Amino acid sequence: MRFPVLVFDIETLTDHQSGAHLYGLDLPEDDLEQALMKIRRQEAGTDFQRLPLHEIVCISGLWIDESGAMKLFSFSREHFSEAEILTKFLSIFDKRHPTLVSWNGSQFDLPVILFRAMYHGLSAPSLFDQGEIDTQKRYNNYQNRYHHRHVDLMDVMAMFNGRHFQKLDDIAHLLGFPGKRGIKGYFVPEYVKTEQWLKLTSYCEGDVLNTWLIFLRWSLLKGQISLSDHQLWIQASIHYLQGQPQQAEFLQIWRETSQKTAFSAKDFPSTAN
Questions:
Q1: Nearest partner of 204 among 92, 78, 96, judged by Cα
Q2: Which of 109, 129, 146, 267 suits 87 as a labelling partner, its CA being 20 to 30 A distant?
Q3: pLDDT below 70 — which residues of the chain?
Q4: 184 and 8 in contact (C-beta within 8 Å)?
Q5: CA distances in angstroms from 212 to 10, 77, 168, listed in the order given
């Protein structure tokens, strides 16, 4: 495992203003969402909006450095504009060059970040350079599907075959991790509208934590860490989360779901049958 590691996830809403501009709509705000959804269904047969129209409302990450220290963080619309969220996140890559870990990041998170950064006139060569500035990036950059600077777990675990893509929630549950913690539906728009910022960041951070735990299991499979090191990382993660009050529910559900498989039951030996 190459340190530092940055596991990340984003949450988004439809950018009504950009959508209205793109399609030449002159409608009240309350009508734009339905109009944009209808257009999208006609275009692609889905409600899932085009990537450039995803406005970022939260970016969460888990930073793990060479010493094993962890830091869970979120930049959200509670305190920052979208441009400020992006600026803060992109500045990480100006200082360090972490191994980036995501779930579906190559098809969703990074393209959305690219489009929205361009929309706000931001520059991010440390993340998007493919060798034009740093020649070493030709052989190991964050965009190339088969490089290792960005590990999109959904992609690599499907062996780069879209027919094998799996949902983060399903794989997390399968391996004995919390997954979405019983949350049914996508409540991010409601969280933002009602200013439930803690729920928003907790939700995004939960996806980051599930991705981190799956990454540990993937690293064990690949032989990049030993079985004993895997257990040490699991215990370090549990210890860290015990000091994160906003993730108390995640930790409690992890304790329960870990007992569903023989291997993950070792994560909490005091509760094992």
A1: 78
A2: 146
A3: 182, 184-185, 270-273
A4: no
A5: 15, 24, 11
Q: How far is CA 58 from CA 87, 92, 270, in A?
A: 12, 16, 36
Q: Is 241 helix (H, G, I), strand (E, B) or coil?
A: helix
Q: What is the pLDDT of residues 123-166, one digit of tens each?
A: 999 999 999 999 989 999 999 999 999 999 999 999 999 999 99
**Is residue 38 classed exposed, middle or buried when 0-12, 13-18 and 19+ CB atoms within 10 A define those classes?**
exposed
Calpha distance 81→120 (Å, rounded): 11
| Max Cα-Cα span within the chain | 62
Q: What is the DSSP string of 216-237?
A: HHHHHHHTSS-HHHHHHHHHHH
The superfamily (CATH) of domain 5-264 is Ribonuclease H-like superfamily/Ribonuclease H (3.30.420.10)
Q: Which residue's entry shows tokens 């340190």?
A: 3
